[in-house]
User: Fold this.
Amino acid sequence: MARCIGILTAGGDSPGLNAAIRAIGKSALNAYNMQVIGFRDGFRGLMENRTVLLEGEILSGILTLGGTILGTSRDKPHKMPVGSRVQDMTEVMLDNYRRHNLEALICIGGGGTQKNAHRLAQAGMHIMTLPKTIDNDVAMTDITFGFDTALSIATDAIDRLHSTAHSHHRIIVVEIMGHNTGWLGLGAGMASGADVILIPEIPYDIKQVADAIRRRRHRGKNFSIVAVSEGAISIEDTRKLAALQKKKQAAGDSKQQKKTTAALEAFKAQQNNNTLHLSRQLEVLTGLESRLTILGHLQRGGTPTAADRILATRLGSACAAAINERQFGCMVAVKGETTALVPLDQVVGKRKVVPLNHPWIRAALETGTCLGNHIF
Ligand code: F6P
Assistant:
């Protein structure tokens, strides 16, 4: 019987996914004589047994394509919306895994996917994962693919905002993705010479941000670029959030629990408009006109950079080789110029945030960038 492995892509899409699918497929077929099937739309396709045979033609011409030819979704195996109910569909997935007599299933995704994949490994599947996300926040790997592409898209966008901010003597606040980490915001802000960079790891003081802009104005610079990670939060809101979380934990009866949960949800919803609020506050505090640009999903779209294509190809081929050696239950991580297999239980439940002593932070400060908090 032919050897067979499966692939799925889950979570938010990310440039380089097709390069990884191609690398796994070509290596498995050429080097190890394994057949490869893809499951469509993440874990949902595994549950519904919607497959595509990944052979020669399908794997050809996809290296440079953005998105994922397999489709993706944010569905979780243990909390799958089916009809009007949310159910644990792990057993159904296990049946489909066995139906195809898979030697292993490769799940390509970010932090959430690593967790879900780990659950399937615990349920008895031979699982391998690859780390992808534009957020670069997966633990135990130097970098994730997709990050480099998003970084260059965001940098290019901020470069363009610079000339219009300069011409109109305005502040431009630019919101950058990254979930609850600041890799993308800090990287793109530094690469484009943003005057202020706000990231979730460093709660900011709006007055210090306004002071930095005013100081620039006194030096004759009538415009400023404020690069803000979507998860950035003020010192004041950090305190409010901590108090709400404490209240929720202490809530006794179910009425109190409902009330505190609702208050926390309302607070989080309000945080979604944080950058708009920030832009308005800066207008009031500095007297300069301010505009907000939200880069959004532009950062995830389109063709991957050369660096991401190479990275995804390296990880994909290393993954096929590891499966051939019957290594399972691991993420194929990037460690400098090489790859390493990290057991999934060391990956899940952690998030790689920007350490406060990271060289990027030091370099940003030493080149005069305001990070919104004097402590740094
Ligand atoms: O995880 C990647 C990411 O793009 C985050 O940066 C962002 O917060 C999130 O996905 C957006 O998710 P969605 O595409 O589901 O709106």
Remarks:
- The radius of gyration is 23 Å.
